[in-house]
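Example record used in the benchmark description.
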Amino acid sequence: MLRVVIACLALHVVLAAQAADPFTFFRPSVVMSLDDRRRLDEGESVARVLPGQDREVAIFAAVPVDADGDRLIAWVRNIAALKKSSFVLAIGRFSDPPRLEDLGGLALEDDDLDDLRACRPTDCGLKLTAAEIAQLQAAIAGRIDWKSVLQDGFRRVVLQRVEAYLAHGLSSPAVFSSIVRRSMCLTERLPAFANYLDRYPQVSMPEVESFIYWSKERLGGRPVMSVTHVSMLRSAGAALPDALVAGKQIFATHYMNGALALTAIVGGGPGSRRYLTYLNRSEVDVLGGFLGGLVRWLVERRLKTEASDVLQGLRRRIESGLPPVALHLSADSHRTDVAAMNLPLAKST
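Model output (structure tokens):
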């Protein structure tokens, strides 16, 4: 009998400790040490590399924040203001339904245009399908003004990708599904949301607020054009984030085969501070081959070094107050089950 009492008391202590831990949502992938909590309590940020399988890279970062979930979501809705920095060369949010005009600010660099001109189905500098390559090659055949024609053609390819995603989901879903399965904070604590992210649009969640945006960002020394589906979910119970923003990669021209980013506000209970957190899992194509181990070490080292600064910049932005008003947005226009956003963070200026 005494053993049963002791076991019950021990279980009660463990459950109480987890309930008081604002980072419970990320267990067991992320367990914050006493030193991590001390640094956070002193206003510092914490960043760490998580174990990654095969070509996956995973990074987690946290920082104390004086803002709630409403503030985070308000800034995410104005994605251009949120991500404004010297690293973000161009960005735009798609209309509902998406239009070619939404991509008017997108322009590829000359290096990418040269790569596109020389593309072959098995040898292309950009991540395009054989059908897309054939479409672009046909458009510029014999054209003197091939660069402008190719710019227009690439914008149409991006629009077609978005339209296909909205109608049928990812054309090659295996990579993203694998990333979701390894995101235990979703599969174990928000299984319906995990299923929605993985199987969209076959699965819907009326409570999810979402949209799609494109961005051109400088990563690894060259511009990368990507399309991200953003999904925002408000708190649905104890030990869950006050607000959770999921960014799902639909398309990227370089480096990444798939990615899922989770940005959240956690904590904020009685006597508890709030924290801004960021968890990103990406499959990176440069991690394969003979030098894959060295490249992984370099990539993870850089991510860990930069993640804290990135999150501090985001904290300053959302703590500054409400974001500028995005002219094309209204409160009702966000409540849609059309798409969701990957929030790959960029350094704020």
